[in-house]
Structure formats: structure tokens, C-alpha cells
């Protein structure tokens, strides 16, 4: 191999598994710690052969589940559930187009290396629904009211070898303009890299 050429796995497939939080939620809002997300991304990368810099663009599908006591009532207003339910969540599925600017350090003697990626994404809401379960009732409302069709945000990854941690912040609010709440989803967790 030419001593001046740097070869890396291209991180063409990335699985993100993490937790969800809402920035800007009402003070009375009670979010459950197990609100979660999963995303699977396929990337195409264009890399320099002389250094660890590259750019990648891809497509992903992501699932988000927000467990809390917040819900839409029959009048189209937000309210807080009283105790007595076993599940109350808002779920969304997005199709996104992410772009990443990537830096990888040189490999060590074991073939491992440091990585730092930063980028953004735009996406479209494919599906949303609300789930409410008590001992006596199981209720599901499809097409959760007020959620925006489009979203955009920023993200970053930092890691070693095939495992990284990530954080993602949606600059666009989850709900449409004029909604009684102005929340921005924030995700963080683990990224697993493949080939």
C-alpha cells in the first residue's frame, strides 16, 4: 500500500439507538426516561486519499417514541393525563436525508482510529400515532394531530473504531406553528458502524 494513502471503512451503514428528550416542554410535563429512538442510515462517502477528511450523504428511516403524560384532547388542546394509565406515548416515523462532514485520525497498530462527524439532515414524517393504554382501555389515534410534515436538524458523532456516541437536535419544532407547545426533539445514544 502506498504510504501516503489512507484507507478506512466507509461507515456506509450506521445503526443509532438512543433516548429522546423534548427541549422547550411545559414545566408540568412529565417525560418518562425510556422515551427512545432507533435509526438505520445508509451512506455514500467521498473521501480524500491523502488525509482523514470526507463528506457523506445518505438516507435513513427513524422511529421515535415519546412516553409522557402529554396528549391532545378532543378539542385539539394539549392536556396532561392523570394517573391510572400504563402507557401514553406519541410515536413518529421519518424518512431523512442526512449529510455528514467526517474526520478520521490515522489508525493505531491495532487498526483502530478516532472519528468525529458533524452534519445535518432534512426529513419527512411518514407516519405518526398516539397510544393510550389503561387496565380497561387500549386506544390508538393514527396521524397524531399537529405534527409537522417536514423537519430539519443537526447532529454529531464522536467515537473510536466501530462504536460512537451521537447527539441530534431538531431545529424545527415537532408541532406546527400555532401549537400550544413549542418542543424540539433532542436525541442521544450509541452509533454502531458497519463496513
Portion of residues within helices: under 10%
SS-based structural class? mainly beta
Number of helices: 0
The CATH topology is Porin
Task: Tell the overall outline.
Answer: elongated
The end-to-end span amounts to 20 Å
Strand count, sense and barrel status of the largest sheet are: 8 strands, antiparallel, barrel
What share of the residues does DSSP label as strand, in percent?
over 45%
Instruction: Write out the strand line-up for the largest beta sheet, numbering strands in chain order.
Output: 1-2-3-6-7-9-10-11
Tell how many strands the DSSP assignment holds: 11
**Global mean pLDDT:** 86
Give the SSE order as H and E letters.
EEEEEEEEEEE
Residue stretches low in confidence (pLDDT < 50, at least 5 long) are 1-5
Under the CATH scheme, which class?
Answer: Mainly Beta
Assigned CATH architecture = Beta Barrel
- Rg value: 20 Å
